[in-house]
Specification:
CATH class of the largest domain: Mainly Beta
CATH superfamily of the largest domain: CheA-289, Domain 4
Strand content: 25-35%
InterPro entries: CheW (IPR039315), CheW-like_dom_sf (IPR036061), CheW-lke_dom (IPR002545)
Order of helices and strands: HHHHEEEEEEHEEEHEEH
Organism: Pseudomonas deceptionensis
Protein name: Chemotaxis protein CheW
Strand order of the largest sheet: 9-1-2-11-10
Keywords: Cytoplasm
Distance between the termini: 21 Å
Subcellular location: Cytoplasm
Radius of gyration: 19 Å
Structural class: alpha+beta
């Protein structure tokens, strides 16, 4: 690739995007002459175009990884560190090596001409546009299943390190990051209806809960497909 890596090209692409919404727009000094017309930057064609270029970068990164991926893969060793969270009434665990951070819930701005059903739009994370995906849609869960309610429970956003960059996954509750014995993770299995669960490595009992362990490789691949 003429001495340039995919990451350096993506970085150059990111620098080429003029994030005017952070300078003169709704997140800046509000001096943009178009702000009175559009009310909010998300209604402006410049903002939408920047979001589209963001998704194009994910597509480019995925194509590069498929082109230069090694033919053999080493056996991954199960980790003990999981972020445990809830969607509806279901508790799930994901290895923390996929996790950049857990953040407070932010406004999600929809995009015209969505590329997939799972893509909900983009969220502004510290001034950067980050794609937002529905885990309920990706995992094929019932969106109508109610979860437990409490004044102390606050929805959160998992910011996950996908193949092309970070993505936002809103969840109903985050219990925290916990260390679980590796032998328990290895012993987790699927049976009955659980065997058809999407992107699932196994199910184990944890704190009197049935905890569904997500397969990080399958999930990250599904995320990438939803963005390309």
């Amino acid at each position: 690739m003429s001495g340039l890596t995919a990451q350096s090209l993506i970085h150059s692409e990111a620098q080429a995007i003029d994030d005017c919404w952070n300078r003169i727009g709704i997140y800046g000094d509000k001096s943009c002459s178009l702000l009175a017309q559009h009310i909010h930057c998300r209604n402006c064609a410049v903002y939408s175009a920047a979001a589209t270029r963001l998704l194009d970068r994910y597509s480019f990164e995925q194509e590069h990884q498929e082109l230069y991926a090694p033919q053999t893969h080493e056996q991954k060793v199960a980790t003990r560190s999981l972020v445990i969270f809830r969607l509806g009434d279901e508790w799930l665990g994901l290895v923390t090596r996929c996790l950049d951070e857990v953040a407070p819930i932010q406004t999600i701005h929809s995009l015209p001409h969505q590329r997939s059903r799972a893509l909900r739009g983009v969220a502004n994370v510290r001034g950067a546009l980050v794609p937002c995906l529905s885990l309920v849609e990706l995992l094929g869960l019932d969106p109508g299943v109610p979860g437990a309610t409490s004044l102390r429970i606050m929805p959160r956003m998992l910011i996950v390190a996908a193949h092309g960059g970070p993505v936002v996954l809103p969840v109903d509750e985050v219990d925290g990051v916990h260390n679980i014995e590796e032998r328990e993770l290895m012993a987790a299995s699927l049976s009955g209806e659980q065997a058809s669960a999407k992107y699932t490595r196994g199910v184990l009992q944890w704190k009197a809960r049935s905890l569904r362990l997500l397969d990080e490789d399958q999930l990250l691949s599904a995320i990438t497909r939803s963005l390309t």
